[in-house]
Amino acid sequence: MAQFFIRRPVFAWVIAIIIMLCGLMSINSLPISQYPDVSPPQISISATYPGADAETLENSVTQVIEQQLTGLDGLLYFSATSSSDGSVSINVTFDQGTDPDIAQVQVQNKVQQAESRLPTEVTAQGVTVKKSQSSFLLIVGLYDETDKASMADISDYLVSNIQDPLSRIDGVGDVQVFGSEYAMRIWLNPTKLASYSLMPSDVETAVEAQNTQVSAGKVGDLPSGADQQLTATVKAQSRLQTPEQFRNIILKSDSSGALVRLGDVARVELGNEDYSSSARLNGHPASGIAVKLAAGANALNTAKLVKAKVAEYQSSMPNGYKVAYPKDSTDFINISIEEVVKTLVEAVVLVVIVMFVFLQNLRTTLIPTITVPVVLLGTFGVLAAFGYSINTLTLFGMVLAIGLLVDDAIVVVENVERVMREDKLPPREATEKSMKEITGALVGIALVLSAVFLPMAFFGGSTGVIYRQFSVTIVASMVLSVILALTLAPALCATLLKPAHGELTNKGLLGKFNRGYNRLQEKYADKVGRVIHSPMRYLLLYGLLLIAAAVMYMRLPTGFLPNEDQGVVMVQYTLPAGATNARTSAVSDEVKDYFLNDEKANVSTIFTINGFGFSGSGQNAGMAFVSLKDWSLRAGSANNADAIAKRAMAHFAKIRDAQVFSMSPPAIDGFGQSDGFTFELQAKGATTRAELQVMRDQIIAAAGENSSLSAVRANTLPDTPQLQVEIDNSKLQALGLSASDVSSTLTSAFGSTYINDFIDRNRVKKVYMQGDVEYRSKPEDLDKWFVSGTSSSSGTSMTPFSAFASSHWIYGPENLSRYNGLSSFEITGEGAAGASSGTAMDEMEKLAAKYSSASSFSWSGLSYQERLTSGQAASLYAISLVVVFLCLAALYESWSIPFAVMMVVPMGVVGSLLAITLRGLENDIYFQVALLTIIGLSAKNAILIVEFAEEKYQRGETLIAAAVEASRMRLRPILMTSLAFTAGVLPLAVSSGAGANSRIAIGTGIIGGTITATILAIFFVPLFYVLVRRMFSRKTTAAKPTENTAPQAGE
Predict the structure, then answer these.
(1) Is 134 a residue whose pLDDT tops 80?
(2) 3-class DSSP state for residue 926?
(3) What pTM was estimated for this model as a whole?
(4) Distance between CA atoms of 152 and 154, rounded to whole angstroms?
(5) Residue-averaged pLDDT of the chain
(6) Peptide bond into 721 cis (omega under 30)
(7) Residue 102: what pLDDT?
(8) Closest CA to 31 of 306, 308, 341, 388
């Protein structure tokens, strides 16, 4: 094959150009993302039951829907939350690779089956099923920097103008608004109602009757008389529009004929539809929309579209309105991709420099350099064919590939040069002879390296997706690089190289390098001879290295992915049960002041929301999203997001009125809201909620004292005082009152009742009725409300609640969570500084075993995936080693020689482990990829030596002479490729800025491994080769040399 192309160089060029064209065309069409679509698809079901408490919801809505969630394809787990503000959300998580559309349809069908059993109030508002992740892609904050507008004005503007267009953008799964639009609020006065013998339900009836639209047809509509001259639409009453019109609604006429209007018994105003959450941005009144990504959508594109859409509206916004993005992961993605691309360029430059130092000839250096862009572009083409994206993982794959791919070309060029020097042949003949010698080795190397990375591609789950990015990228570039090494490289060698029969130069710096190198090579050949003659001592050393590697591997902490500084810190604060909005605001002001004053240098905006939290919504909960300045403006480890969050935690520990936790977003979007672990404590059998709560509190208390855990908290709001109203049914009967009147009066007094809609500036909005503030602020206020009944004298009489109802205080949950259909408590937390997530999870499992023998536990979110991977790593290494062994056996047509190559693998692994341990990193997915790369690399060095030794031995040299000579000949390409590879990966290991932790994780392991794999392997490979050959071939030594000398001498 090589000879064919040596004679037809143009053909070789054509192949290379076609590969490059494929790559160039595909680059533009490849989507860009931070990680591939790793997170499992999530379908969220949400329903509302106005005024219901958590227990009512759990029993009447949540369980009914949960019982139907059976027989779904690829279901992993589902969790549900019922909270006291009347909302239920159920998140159903499917296996990675499930089609989100089909999952959504299946869930929708199951919900449909449950609908007939749900309360009518729930079905009236609708049960929605959306395919969206639970975490926020970005938050659009709108604020008024002049402080003239109120939060209600801003959120009404946001909901009326921006919410719907954003929800329709391709890739947006769902939006959550902090704030609400205007609504017509009718605030009832019970004393006045009673004086006119009216109940809230009478008001509702009147508003429904008089705030309607009537369709009345046309005048002169067809069929009509022949002489009809005109047709016109008849308009009757339409919806009301202003508070004044509502005040004039007639409720009843008095006995004297005077009219009772709505304005007489109630205060009517344009208010908020929902008062539960309020937001501020840098202290200015604000409102925000959190955008959640649809399952399987591209984060970067979606965010671009959202920002473009918001920008369209910016010019027409009211004066003083400004937009900010308090949480936005897209800058991070862009910058971290840019950083990796920079690393890619640096790698290429360093590799070229290393080659020039060794080859000392521009023409020779040019040949491997030409193959780099060809292979890289070709790899992009392969990615496009597989439907992958340009993301940090595929780019890492390319950086690793650069080091490996130059190797093939270096091996070709170096060997041609050596043949020209030693055999004094012209370039073309030298190339032909050289290719005969090394084609086997090239194919072998490609096979082995592909074999190492191929098994990764077949793993399931989210980790499988991550591995696949690497394996496809690296295998593609390996295959392309071998194709070029067999086609383009020899063609270039034959055409470009000058016949060089002289020795390498002695002048200048390069001369110094050459003299030094020659001395090194002679010393090295001596040393190899000595190593082979005293094998026991070195085998003992090998044994010690193996033990060291095993010990270090066992002691490495495990992790899933390194946590990155994403430029966002999130703060969550929870106040004691029953705390009001005013107290929560005080805490949120403290949080805001701390970040805007103490952390002024690092913080650009802070968006605080009261009444909303990841652990539940209520007056005593709140969140802050802190957006940090650009990475370049906050250098140094004291200013990264993690350090800022830890400092903030320490500072907020002084706040007496609230528990404040600061956290960073998770390493990958779509796995929950924050990093750390997600632990689900589940009830089992007859465990009651109270017993489960005791266990939860014990676990959290113990975790608080545990040195390897930090910020461990129950992801739920504390139980709150509740007022239980007991109604005496026998008294109702005696007083002639109906139970439905009593409950509707109660709902309208303390809860808010949705009546119907009105028109406000051409947009349909809602009408609500509720007791006025002073008639629902204390338990005694219940007695101010009256229900009308028919008394014995057949007149209507107004009866106060005190006549038939009593109330007392109880404690009850603010929100109830369930996991996989069992009652549960979610506990979140993270490892303390220096403890990895794997260690933290082990500690939690110990605590759970100790305190909750009567219950079970599960992992959710990222933790679920991490537990899955830790089991996969060992099998991954094992399969890779077996496949490598089989490839080598096929290559050398022998079962024994591959052992000589395989025994070298631990050499590299030792270095990797050592480097990772010294830098305090953990055994995560990147480290696993690094180890596999090292396995391939150490095998590659060994193949180069063994291939030559075997050939010389077959020609009849003695075993030891063959081994020493092969080592001496191959030392230069081995040092060159290893140095080139180290140089290529070096920028990764020393990087900083956005996404640095991932680059450091992968670079460190590889550099450590390459160094030891090279330094140790060049001595041990010849030794292992000699030992294996001696052990396995005593019988055949006599016969072989004689057969083989004759034909080969004539070559």
Answers:
(1) no
(2) helix
(3) 0.81
(4) 6
(5) 86
(6) no
(7) 93
(8) 388
